[in-house]
Amino acid sequence: MYRIVGLIRGGRVGAGVAVFVFFALTAAGLGRSHASRLPQEKEAAGVSASDALLLNGFRHLEAASVSDAIEQLTGKKMYMSHRMRPLFPSKFAGFALTVQLKKETNHDPDALKGMLAAIDQGAPDSVYVMVVEDGADIAGIGGLMGTAMSARSFSGAVIDGGVRDVSYLQKIGFPVFALGIVPSTSVGHYRFAGANIPVLCDGIAVSPADIVVADGDGVVVVPRSEAARVLALAQELDYKEHSMYGTIEKLKSIEEAVAKFGRL
């Protein structure tokens, strides 16, 4: 998909053809291997067909369009700050599986047991949303946890804290957004404080099963109750934006394109 967007922006194909190809590929459901499963397969794995179609729609949208749609419909800003960045270029969407860690020095070998259980009980298409209290310099995820999430077909992880073992996470291609890269551990310094509970991740409210959309522009959280109408508007905004590239190149005017499509 990024190649098609590049062709559109680079003017190497006609605007009409480019937009047609872009959305034809979108409809075909191209993406990560586990993201492209049919709705029937998703339902067999515990995800309803309607949820699978909804999530597939968000996977093919830009985070910026989703953010704009939420703000237009609800008046709320549901995107995380510039601090939340990917380890490598990534694009994903999934249902939030939330985890909270509280700061506490301890020698309890079971202090983080619930954190691991949450991963092992997580469903495919989950996005692991972890909040590490005052944890910008504490790794909330590393190679072992990332491997487990990848094996369970999680969509990705968003960590309000640090990340480590980055070379291995890059090797297996598991996408992680975090506040920074650090070599530290949470073991002995934190205690599990709950899973599948409402949390504030980088200042944004995230509830279990909310839809998390992430790409090179950042991370956006879609409240589950608003997901259907946000998707519809975001698809309209996305379509208009990609249609505008060719128009701008042809007319050599962004003002005329904005007047025609009503999108900026």
**Low-confidence runs of at least 5 consecutive residues:** 1-45
CATH class division of the largest domain: Alpha Beta
Q: Tell me, briefly, the overall form.
A: elongated
CATH homologous superfamily grouping of the largest domain:
Ribonuclease E inhibitor RraA/RraA-like
Protein topology:
Elements: H1 2-10, H2 15-28, H3 39-44, H4 49-59, H5 63-74, E1 85-86, E2 92-103, H6 113-120, E3 126-132, E4 139-141, H7 143-151, E5 156-163, H8 166-172, E6 176-181, E7 190-195, E8 199-201, E9 204-206, E10 211-215, E11 218-222, H9 227-251, H10 254-261
Parallel strand pairs: 2-3, 3-5, 4-5, 5-6
Antiparallel strand pairs: 1-6, 2-7, 2-10, 8-9, 10-11
Helix pairs in contact: 1-2, 2-9, 5-9, 7-8, 9-10
